[in-house]
Structures are given as structure tokens and as C-alpha cells.
Amino acid sequence: MGASNSQQVQQPKPNPELDKPWRKLDWGQKEALKEKLENFSPGDTNVKDIKILIAGQVGAGKSSFINSIDSVFKGRVSSRALVSSSAGVSFTQKLKGFTIRSERKILPFVFKDIMGLEAAVLAGSQTDDIINAVFGHVKDGYKFNQEQALTYKDQHYNCDPTLSDQAFCMVYVIDANTVDFTDDKLIDKLKIIRHRISDRGIPQVVIMTKVDTACPLVKDDLRKIYTSKKIKEKMEMCSAKTGVPMSNIFPVKNYHEETDTEDFADVLLLKALEQIVQIANDRLLDCESYR
Fold it and tell me: 27-289 has which CATH code?
């Protein structure tokens, strides 16, 4: 009896993987997605390209996401949007637009990169600056001021933005490793932005980065991203915190230490971009219908 009491029955470790993917994804559609995006045209012929504003917490990989999209179409790792290896401070200081060029053409969408968000009230980009950038009031080259938001008196303020100046989708970039611990003050900033731009019908998307470091299962095989219980839980938490529905949250792996692109990472990036572009174009068509 003593021997049996000393022997403890080891409980099996919980399975970190779901029986089947909860979101379907064709991992062999890389070239089809690239072709579809290369052939995309904005729904309003008066708009040359669709603007997409990229915001996010400092260090989440906002500029790296832009570079990763650029890398997919170039077929090599790109670093046009400058990033920093030091954590804690946003490397992006000015509003800048980035076009994406494939081997054949310049694609008709532009990513607007802004200073990273920080939790402190006067740290990172001002919420008013982000909101104004979405509505087309902020010109490229504006240097973000942590102490004061842009005013109509500034030379970088666009008093009368056209439809082409406006962003038709707002993308939040959030680190999968820190979504559980994201500062409530930062979430409050996101909610302020979300409320203000939602009033004007601007859709929002979340790009969840660093999924490979957040889940060992995904690190070993990126194709397990939609069978990973951990990634699904993090996406659900992200949705609950930000208010963005799960259907508008896309987990990706940015290029940050690689020297060559990878097909499975490319598919995740392309699928996220396809959804962003379609969502933005739907908003453009809504604007066009009211003109």
C-alpha cells in the first residue's frame, strides 16, 4: 500500500492543438493571392490608390508588417520602413506613406506609417493626430509631437482633404506575446480612436504579430496557426479588449531576422492584406454611393 501511495499517477499534458482548424486557409494559394492583389483596382475611379493607416503599440512590429508585405511582392526581405532593434521607444517619428511594388507594377494601395502608441498620456502619437490622419487632415512628413496634437494652423494640416487623402481602413498591430498584459491606458487610447473613426464608418482590423514566439506549436510549423489553442485564445482576448471582431483579426509572422522569404509566412501576410484591401474598398464604395 505504501508503495502504491508513493506512486503518483501522472496526468497527461493537455493537447495544445485543436482537432481541426477553426479557420480555413489554403496554404497553396500564394501565387493566386499575389495575382489577385496585383490586379486589384479601387472601386472609385476617382481614387488612384487606397490609403490604409497602420497604428500599433511600440515594438509590436508596425513598420515590420509594412516591410513584410513589401518583401512578399519583391521576393526578398525588404526594409524600406525603418525599424529599431531597441525596445520601448517608437522609431517612427513622422507620417509617411509606403507604396508596394511587385515585379510588374506599383500596387494601388498605400500604407501610412505613424509613430507607435504608448500608454502614457503624453507619450507616443496623440490620439487626435491618428484620428486626423485617418480623415486625411495630416500631410506626409508631419513630425509627431508628444506634447501637442497637430492643429489647423500647422503647415502639415490639410484643411480640405479629398477622398484620395483619406484612409479607408485602420489597422492596429498588436504583439501576440503581450496582448494579455497590454496596459489599460493603451487600450483606452485604442477605444477612443475606434469610437471616433467608427462614427464615420471607418473599419478596423487587427494584425497580431510574433505568433511564432507566442506559441511553440506555431514556431515549429506555421501551418498549425489555426489549430493552436494558444493563438485562438490570444485572438479572443484581443477581440474582447479592442472590440474588433474575430473576423477582422489576422495573425501573421513578420520578417525580422530572416534573409529569405518563406511561402507559408507569405500566405498569411497575403491573406491578411487581401482582407484589409477588400474591407477598405467596401468603405470606399460606401463613400462613393453617397456622393
Answer: 3.40.50.300
